[in-house]
Amino acid sequence: MPYKEREISKLYYTMGEVTEMFGVNASQIRFYEREFDVLQPKKNKKGNRLFTQDDIANLKIIFHLVKDKGYTLQGARDYLRSNKNEARENQRVVDSLEKLKAFLLEVRDSL
């Protein structure tokens, strides 16, 4: 069996890395932090926000609900409160499908 490298993930992501991931301004991330109590990034002594993998997953769910599904902020908050586990599972499925799509596109381009 060939050696398979594991993906290396960081424990904490800076605000700059998170804004680059989502392609938005830092002010929008800070706004969502104030609006959604599921976002609780840690802050270092200087006050810089440090986002965990859970924070990134919650941000993905929020962006999916607000941007893709068209939920209002209040509607997204209510949905997360009542269906948090279901929303996380749906986001895992979406992430795996996006990885599969990227792989298939890469295979298509190599042919």
Automatic annotation (TrEMBL):
<dbReference type="Pfam" id="PF13411">
    <property type="entry name" value="MerR_1"/>
</dbReference>
<dbReference type="InterPro" id="IPR009061">
    <property type="entry name" value="DNA-bd_dom_put_sf"/>
</dbReference>
<dbReference type="GO" id="GO:0003677">
    <property type="term" value="F:DNA binding"/>
</dbReference>
<protein>
    <submittedName>
        <fullName>MerR family transcriptional regulator</fullName>
    </submittedName>
</protein>
<feature type="domain" description="HTH merR-type">
    <location>
        <begin position="12"/>
        <end position="82"/>
    </location>
</feature>
<dbReference type="InterPro" id="IPR000551">
    <property type="entry name" value="MerR-type_HTH_dom"/>
</dbReference>
<dbReference type="InterPro" id="IPR047057">
    <property type="entry name" value="MerR_fam"/>
</dbReference>
<dbReference type="GO" id="GO:0003700">
    <property type="term" value="F:DNA-binding transcription factor activity"/>
</dbReference>
<keyword id="KW-0238">DNA-binding</keyword>
